[in-house]
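Repro:
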Amino acid sequence: MKKGVIEDTLFGVLKAKRELLVACWSTKIRGAVSAPLTTTELLDKIPAFVDEIIDALYPNGARLPSTSEFAGEHGAQRLRLHFDVREVVEEGRGIWNVSTLHAPMPTHEAAK
């Protein structure tokens, strides 16, 4: 991978904007869930899960497990807090939407 090109990848953008991604996700999801949650309850394992995503996208990085410990723990916490399936799905959709909002558009040059 050419030097400087890494910033033009999903990995580079997510790594550089991790805090913004988590903050945007938190704002979006706070409005989508019905339960009154503290910030700690709302975020739960999401920052660690985002780190797992970033690590998985690292070019030439070590192969990661096919499952996420943090995603499972987060799901269990949501079950304990009586989230319904719609809310859990919206959280997952929120991570994807916020992530791709900040991602660069692929170009022919970036593929080289």
